[in-house]
Amino acid sequence: MNITIFNEGRDERRKPEVLEVYPNGIGGVLRDIVLEMEETNLLTIGCLYDEECGLTEDILEKTDVLIYWSHGGNHEFPDEIAKRVQNHVLRGMGFIVLHSAIGCKAFTSLMGTTCTFRYHHDDKEHVICCNPTHPIAQGVDDRFVLEVEETYGEFMDIPKPDDIIFIGWFSSGEVCRSGCTFTRGNGKIFFFQPGHETNPSFYHPQVRKIIQNACHWATPTRKLPKVSEYVAL
Amino acid sequence: MNITIFNEGRDERRKPEVLEVYPNGIGGVLRDIVLEMEETNLLTIGCLYDEECGLTEDILEKTDVLIYWSHGGNHEFPDEIAKRVQNHVLRGMGFIVLHSAIGCKAFTSLMGTTCTFRYHHDDKEHVICCNPTHPIAQGVDDRFVLEVEETYGEFMDIPKPDDIIFIGWFSSGEVCRSGCTFTRGNGKIFFFQPGHETNPSFYHPQVRKIIQNACHWATPTRKLPKVSEYVAL
Amino acid sequence: MNITIFNEGRDERRKPEVLEVYPNGIGGVLRDIVLEMEETNLLTIGCLYDEECGLTEDILEKTDVLIYWSHGGNHEFPDEIAKRVQNHVLRGMGFIVLHSAIGCKAFTSLMGTTCTFRYHHDDKEHVICCNPTHPIAQGVDDRFVLEVEETYGEFMDIPKPDDIIFIGWFSSGEVCRSGCTFTRGNGKIFFFQPGHETNPSFYHPQVRKIIQNACHWATPTRKLPKVSEYVAL
Amino acid sequence: MNITIFNEGRDERRKPEVLEVYPNGIGGVLRDIVLEMEETNLLTIGCLYDEECGLTEDILEKTDVLIYWSHGGNHEFPDEIAKRVQNHVLRGMGFIVLHSAIGCKAFTSLMGTTCTFRYHHDDKEHVICCNPTHPIAQGVDDRFVLEVEETYGEFMDIPKPDDIIFIGWFSSGEVCRSGCTFTRGNGKIFFFQPGHETNPSFYHPQVRKIIQNACHWATPTRKLPKVSEYVAL
Q1: Which CATH class is domain A2-115+178-218?
Q2: Nearest residue of A to residue B145 by CA position?
Q3: Where are the beta strands (DSSP E) in chain B?
């Protein structure tokens, strides 16, 4: 399984507290999550400031699953690279969309909606499984607690997911569809809501297990040579 | 729209506190909810102790929507009448399943699952809409509070709903898919989780609006003359 | 119900046989379908050659349901107007996407996929209902025949529909998900496959009934004042 | 993977032509399909005339996936064993329901509907994939032909499937949702329409591949010790 990570890298430059929680940045902790898996090969960790954001045609061509974290730079991301990511997903590349990457251009283009939601910071979250037989829930507890996370609240403007696997409960009184799958073209997509840049959720073993399960689940069973076009019979 | 109510009527006999909250029983408050709607005709209010539970073939034949509340007597309900209700739903009768009626034989037979869940009493609930364009959500607030309700928690063992319209947040840290639709045969089914017998939820204007919307939504557009059988072309 | 029609109008200029089948063009026959409905108001019929394609902000602001037919000019359609249509759908405008309009920019942007499929011409189609209780199927026969239509074949690269209402059978040995619904944001979308420019399907009473039902079904129950943005609690 | 086969065995006794097509009966050809898979263990092949139909508690307890073919004896099958099968599915056992087993009590109890459909014999079928990334479609052709099969036509009275993987096209002008998945409790269920007792479909390599894929897909990731009951928090 060839994995590529995209970590925007913008918050690490602007908010010192991010590096207090994640000394190697969010890209670093995601790398650790990937390297815990057996038989995986981490191709690269791209960021907003790399040439082509590190997401070259060559890299994406080899990528089975792209793990993507982004935030305040979503609107700065180049349109043509977002389109490239979208096309690779449609051809079969798995796409794991973490937290505020819900607003990245590649994901919103695949969804067709605004992907907006209600939010505020510094809440306690319970992540509760409502789909215990889904491959992404295997070996994951029925529920677990994130002591501090960012609340994402409904109405979250996403299309109806293929499967809702986790629902988030927040101490402020909100809920959201916290772990959702989508299929677009030949690509499998998993959105997972935890992962605020100043909260230590990516150290939580259950969060790590979920991301690892999602990588296995999203690995393409087939990948088209190019985005499909109209086909005469 | 011809509506029939089934209220089990068992808790009213065993728990004096039910009549403190609902002096005319749960059947009485459901009747009030029905009578608030224009152009509706309440056919009858059956209970567990009535002959055929009040759900005769003749009554069900005329019924467009059956509103059903039950609880501790779910297992005492006659099998043949549960089967009769199931058949009328499959032919097209709408079926509004309130609170602990989730465990009634007619509903579990239509679902095919155990319809079990986690529960405890005396919690605060937020009912939050995650499907704002659904007809059952029309004119309903984005979220509303029930000061005291019974917690229903996931994993709730129901088949994947056609639509999840409301998610319940409970102060104890639980969530559940609180308002869900299903289609079975020609019948439209709405399960709604609030409505514990000693909590005043059926007085809440948002709960009443939701039940009324559900009656309109579940009204059959067509009703088969009998349950279908194998049909040769 | 305020309805707007968009008919590309390109085929009428290039293929004389279109006007043999539809002397007033496809826009003309769609107008007749709309005018058969009671209590509807046809706002305008736009085409590719009109200023802003006839789909001005002012018109879309007033539109409850947009009926859209297009074909060879899908790629010439202005991006900003496609984006405008998408935004109005997300705010609540109903969107009826007919035949080759499956490839129009507004629809593919709402779907996120290529919306490609297999095709060829001059086939016989059976349109068969697999969802008889859906509002769009009310009063429509279980199955009906279109003597000549264009085959659309699977795999049709669309996201999983909310509901599949009709499946198309083609004498050449193909099938497709011929009538499908989607919800995106507050907008209800219906894709319907029949309607090739030189086949008389839009005269078929069942096709007309389906389009009319779809207009009623897609009428917004609420329309947002603007496309939503991130909302702090 | 521990697999159990149930083959009703009634048609083999009553219709000599079944044994002309399948000299070892339908149970025999299903056994061959199972034995082609690596790392599988065939526990037993039960039939209607065996004690407890061969589906004892002990056997089902060990079974990961139950492959089930039945037909004219569906109504003779003992209720308590059907209930036993249903309970094991809810606990996690995979359930592969072939052809006329659509009418068996265990399946109809899990679905809650009549599972009826239109039918006639001796048609040509095209099995066409509309969900190419599903695990059950891996390595299966986009479409393949069964020269003679029994037509199953819509409306097929099943609940909305989790996924529709194959649509059947029949030369008589019918279609059906030919390969469908459902989740009930912890159990994964696959219904597959081909397999009439006097047609050689179970020799077709694509049909065999699909059944084998379905066994892998339906293998439980977890199995509950007993059917769940109401759980206090």
Answers
A1: alpha beta
A2: A173
A3: 2-7, 41-46, 65-69, 94-98, 118-129, 143-153, 163-170, 175-184, 187-192, 231-232
